[in-house]
Every structure is written in C-alpha cells, then in structure tokens.
Amino acid sequence: MFFKIIYIFVILILTKSSLQQTRRLGKFREIFAWKQLTYNINGNILLQDRFGDIEDNRKKRETGKIVFENDKSESGDRDWNEPPQNATNNTSTTDPSSEVGSFFIQYNNVPMGVERFGERLFITVPRRRYGIPSTLNYIDLKDSKSRSPALRPYPDLWQARSLTSVYRTRADKCGRLWMVDTGLLEIPDNPRQLQTPAIVVFDLKNDKQILRYPFKSSDIPAANTPTGLASITVDIDEDCSDAYAYVVDLTTFGIIVYSLKHNDSWRHTHAYLHFNPTAANLNIAGESFQWSDGVFSITLTEPQADGCRTAYFHPLISTEEFSVSTCVLKNRAIRSNRNYFSLYSYVGKRGEGSQSTMHEYHQKSGTIFFAEIGRDAVSCWNSGKMLNPSNIAMLAQDRQRMSYPSDLHVTDDEVWVMANTLPRFGYSRLDTNEFNFYIYSGNVNELIAGTVCSAPRTYLEFKKNN
C-alpha cells in the first residue's frame, strides 16, 4: 500500500511537471489560453451566444435572455446596456436587442491586442463581426487563477460600449491608456462607419476617459482608411502634457501624428510605408493567401543627442525594416522640404518569411523584438548590430501555439505576446475544442541570453578578460 501511494505521488508530480512544460514555449511562459472567450459582466460569466448554432446560420433561438453560468436571479433578463443610475451622455454604438447588434456571439470574439499596466492586462477584441460585448477589456492579474479567465469590460460595460472597435492599446509612463477607436463595425460585405475614427485616452488612476480626438478629414484620405488604423505608439519625455502619438495607416499607407499639447494632427507619407509585393504570399495556420498591408508598427529608441528618438517601422507585408527621426515626424512643415524623402532610412532585411505585425524596442539592452506571422515566431535583433538574417535570433516558434502573433509589447523587462490564429478564423474555421488564443510573457534578459541579440562586449570588457 505504501509503495502504491508513493507511485501515485510520483505520477502526479511527473504529470504536473509535464503540464508545466507544455505551457512553456521556448523561454516564454504561457500566461493564459482560451478555446473561446468568455466575459465577466458584473459578476456574471457570459458563456453562450443569443442565437443558435454557428453552423446553422446563427438562427434565432431566443430573443429575451442572455445566458450566464452563475445567474441565480432575474439579472439574466436585464438589458446589459442599461446605464448606471448616475450615467449620462450615452454614446453606445451597438444595439443588443437586434440581431445586427447581437450582444454576444462567442465564436466571433477574437482577441487582438495585449498590454500590461500594473496588475491589469488589457485585451482588445475589435468588432470585425457581430456579437462583441466589449472591444476594450481587462484581466486582473492578482485575482486570476484560471488558465482561461473571463474578460471584464473596461472600465465598465457602460463606458466600454462607447467604443466601437479598438485593435491595440498602449500605456504611457504618466498612467494613461492610449488607443485608436476606428469607429468602424468591420463586418465583411457590410461595413458601417458608426463614429469618426479617433484617438481615445483613459486615465488609469481613476479609469475615466480624458480625451477623444476625432481625426481630421486630411488625416483620413479614403473611406477604407479606418480599416488600417491598427496600432498606436506614444512618444513622451518628462512633460506629460507634451506627448505625441504615432498612428499607422496600413490601408492607405501613412503615419498620422497627434500632438497632445497642440491638440492637432497631421499626416506623413513615404514610399517606405507601402507593402512589398514580393512578400505578399503567406501561408499561416494552413491557409494560403495574399495581403497588401502597409506600415503596421512603430517602435522608439531612447532619445538621441538631438533630443529626438529613432522611430523604427515596417510594413506588415515586408521583410525589411526602416527608420526615421521623430524630429521629422513631429515637424508638420517638413513635408514641403525638397529633401523630405531622403530623411527616411533603409535599415536592413530580417530574412525570408519574416513578415511581422508588432515590434518593440527594449531600452536597457537595445534589443528589438518582432512578432513574426510569416514564421509563427517571436524573434529579436540587437539594434547595435547590422540588421541581416544572421543577426536575427528565433526565440519561440510553433505553428499552433504561436500562430499569428497579433501583438507584442515590452513592459519594463517583460515581453508580452498575443497569438490568435486569425487567418484560420478569417478563411476557414476555428476548432473550438482546442486552444486558439494564447498570451505569453518572457523576461528580456532570459530570452536573449546566449543569442546574437545579447549585447556585444565592449573593448574594455574584452581587455579585462583576455
């Protein structure tokens, strides 16, 4: 009997060890994973969509109720868009009482962005289909014990419903959360522009919206431009009131610059912001297709001698990296300079199949991390070295668990990554019996140790050790 107990104990330890091992990818730790998303609405866990089977054309099953896991009161019948008693100025953009504005269709909820600030992890779910309860959400890292926690609308459902569709967020050192609300209900074959695209900022100290800046018509040159407002980068030094935001436009190939101090915006264009047709062929999650997305991500170095930063950027459909000084981006008049186009630089090539969504610069190490959709991977490059394939290190790669890394961000010394298998959702069908969405985290120093991304030794270090 004693040996049987010992045997069972050993098996349990080995099983737990094996489980922990499967929840690592390279040196990254899996933080969360979902087969499908659920939501926590005021303590009620939203599990089922209002309509019938996805395979049965979502035929209407029941109009009056939203189904909750732990609903033991009449709250299952309430209108979840009903505001708090003291709420005013409702700017809700979706109607939960109609099929077109279905409150929740679980299959349609695909997470896109991830950002950590303090003990909160912000998760965005852009409205590319019907049935998205909230486009901006969060997870409380202190309270979350589940592998697949429910998302909570941020700051609450009522305020979250004033946002139409957000792809990615970024927090600044002044405790503010920045994003672009595209204002677009991006339904295939039936898109609807519900609000003017705008920069939105929340104060994370009191969870209040403090800015909504609608873009000017000169910022948005075409009707389809809002589909390409995929990311935002915040540039700030010591003065919190003197911040700049750089918004990429991957559809009509531009960078929109916003000045908080002047509450004004302008647009830059350049050939380097366009896609490279030789990199347009993709094969991701078993799906083959072509995309034509231009500039997708901007990341900033520390300030240089002139007080400005180097802005590294790349189109999604490209394997090259480019750069420009933020002195150029901040100068709206420079666009008329005859030498304007020479102010942008070609940096180098990452390698075959290295198409990347987001990338982020880590100031202490000078390392840039890339979320590579073309190779189902996260890679790195030490910006003190030439950019070429031999100076790129693959840190994690997996065709299933790192399929379409849609967001990557560095917070302090941590790299956070979201992978969401988006092409399979768009071109085929997700298997809801398996995990489809993942969030990973890794320590910068651990990730780059022993790779070509680790900082090269200085001459003095070399002399001391030789």
Major beta sheet summary: 5 strands, antiparallel
Report the span from N to C terminus.
Answer: 61 Å
Secondary-structure-based class equals mainly beta
Give me the CATH architecture of the domain at 35-217, please.
Answer: Beta Barrel
Give the helix proportion (percent range).
10-25%
**CATH class descriptor of the domain at 35-217:** Mainly Beta
The dominant shape is globular
- Report the sheet-strand fraction: 25-35%
Count of β-strands: 31
Number of distinct helices: 6
* Average pLDDT: 87
Question: Remind me, CATH topology of the domain at 35-217?
Answer: Thrombin, subunit H
Unreliable stretches? 7-21, 52-83, 88-92, 94-98, 457-466
- The radius of gyration is 23 Å
Strand order of the largest sheet: 1-2-31-30-29
Main location: secreted
Signal peptide: 1-20
InterPro entries: 6-blade_b-propeller_TolB-like (IPR011042), MRJP/yellow-related (IPR017996)
Subcellular location: Secreted
